[in-house]
Amino acid sequence: MPIVQLGREGRWTNYHGTGTCEAATRFALRSGDAERGRDELAAAAREVREWLAAAQAAGRHVRPLGAGWSPSNINIASHCWLLHTRRFNRCFRIAGDDVRPGVDAASLMLVEAGALVDEVSDKLEAQGRSLWTSGAGNGQTFAGAAATGTHGSMVAHGGIQDHIRAIQIVTPAGAQWVEPTAGVMSDDFIAATGSQAVRDDALFAAAQLPVGALGVVTALVVSSVPRFLVRPIQNLRRVDRRALNWLSAGEFRRFSAAYALDRDPDFVQMIVNPYKPFKRPAMLRFLYREPWRDDYPRATPGELGAGYDALSLLGRLLDDYPWARGWLLQFAMKLGYAGGPDVQDPPVYGSWGEGLDTHRPLADLFNASVTIDRADLAYVFEQICGVYARHGGSTVVTLRFMERAQGLLAPARFAHNAVIDFDGPRSQRTADAYARVVERLDAEGIAFTRHWAKSCNLDAARVESDYGEDFRRWCAARDRLIPDPAHRRLFASDVLDGLGLTC
Ligand SMILES: Cc1cc2nc3c(=O)[nH]c(=O)nc-3n(C[C@H](O)[C@H](O)[C@H](O)COP(=O)(O)OP(=O)(O)OC[C@H]3O[C@@H](n4cnc5c(N)ncnc54)[C@H](O)[C@@H]3O)c2cc1C
After folding, report:
1. Which residue intervals define the domain FAD-binding PCMH-type in the entry (predicted)?
2. pLDDT at residue 313 above 50?
3. Which of 148, 163, 401 to mutate to test the pocket of ligand 1 (most atoms within 8 A of CB)?
């Protein structure tokens, strides 16, 4: 499993075209053909460690890359060595004697860091298992998605990083196998991966969400649940103001009964036009979990409502005709949103993985978010719509819901979270509107965090104040994982330095 160099030093642009690395030397870590996962990992750890030493000797910073999806430029670093991990993507079953006593091996899978969420999902489902949450797309690598706290809108769950039970991290000092204090994998297994066992809750909580600053993540042990089916309901409904109070209070059943089925929903998402949000129909999506059965009629991704791209296609139009913004957004929402399956349509079912989409590149995408305490939702929503009505900007506003996520730097840090996403065409006007939303929340004294992977204008002072004691714990964990400051600086970039994560 060699690390191979890809061409000469040059430019590299990330997948969605939001950032470019200048003078980057690109390398790829590729899977080998070892029969056992632990042997693959031992070889990868050796290779990556040597590669890091070579980068250091060459006086270059390094940047490990997943699928390169992040639009925040968190994956961008110039004059450095990039390590593409996408082809380091094998997944392995875990046997009963690979784990510590009391650990359910059948629920775990060993995943090489570059495996896509889609690939992990497929492998699990083939074994009768499933992820319990993920982002709306599945074209990210598992390690990259976890590195930034990716999430969806499963109302009773946290982020994708919550699936992680153990992590192999390589730095120039060697490979460390980081687990919670109680331990997960057997000593023999860990030794065979060429790593030193580090069983420590504080380090694990930092490593679950490393933001690319804690070394090269080479492997993960991912936990799963028995596979299940979801029944989607997707419709356009004019949402009543009072319904936002139900969402704020976590009365998802009541919301569902009013707009879809009178059942507890597992997933609730609302995409709304911030111009006259209560007069124009919102796009609602609900998922209802059902027990697995082999004979469910297979549906296409489109029938399951996976993916919605028309918003970005209409981006330029929105920017060119600002006076028609409200109407155009509504038109875009209608075009981009599959009609149904609504309540009266014949039900369709799919597994968790079937309802996700890998996405085409979204050129000229603007995408930002704030995560707030769900209790503040109704008030914050009014404030946000007020900002758009006064100052313009062409984004739709998406409301998603989740519980507190794991990882010290998880943006979903409230007990119950509402995540408000702003997606639309990239333009100065749209960026300014988001900046005004943030100003407004600050002026109102509303606590909120921002997504690591989106264009959220974060800086070091803000990261420190948003995460407080958890930020200090994360920094202390980083310094224990990578005690040598020169090794920590190897993972520096302008973006991560700006966030105060790589000092
Ligand atoms: C179309 C689209 C839809 C999205 N939908 C959602 C959504 O529904 N919910 C949500 O929360 N987010 C969403 N996102 C954000 C997305 O999930 C994150 O950007 C995610 O980090 C991308 O994963 P990646 O593999 O592309 O990582 P990259 O962008 O390649 O990297 C992200 C960070 O992780 C680091 N990293 C990656 N791999 C490793 C490794 N092996 N070792 C160490 N560090 C590593 C990188 O250095 C970088 O700092 C979306 C983004 C797009 C573009």
Report:
1. 29-227
2. no
3. 148
Are 190 and 197 in contact by the 8 Å Cβ rule? The answer is: yes
State the Cα–Cα distance between residues 282 and 279, nearest whole angstrom. Answer: 9
Copy the structure tokens of residue 490: 């190897």
DSSP helix/strand/coil, 40: helix
Strand 174-179, strand 396-403: pairing: unpaired
Q: For residue 265, how far is the Cα from the chain centroid?
A: 22
CB contact at 8 A, 178 and 200: yes
Rounded mean pLDDT of 96-116?
Answer: 98
Residue-range domains of the chain with CATH: 3-226+475-498 (3.30.465.10), 228-351+364-449 (3.40.462)
What would the pLDDT profile of 400-437 be if each residue is shown by its tens digit? 999 999 999 999 999 999 999 988 777 788 888 899 99
- Joined together, the tokens standing for residue 125 give 């489902």
**SS3 assignment, position 429:** helix
**Closest of 214, 219, 113 to residue 173, by C-alpha:** 214
Query: CA-CA distances (angstroms) from residue 220 to 84, 161, 289?
Result: 17, 10, 27
171 Cα: distance to centroid of ligand 1 (angstroms): 21
| Residue minimizing CA distance to atom 9 of ligand 1 | 135
Taking the C-alpha atoms of residue 176 and residue 185, their distance in angstroms, rounded to an integer, is: 13
Q: Which atom of ligand 1 is nearest to the CA of 141?
A: 25
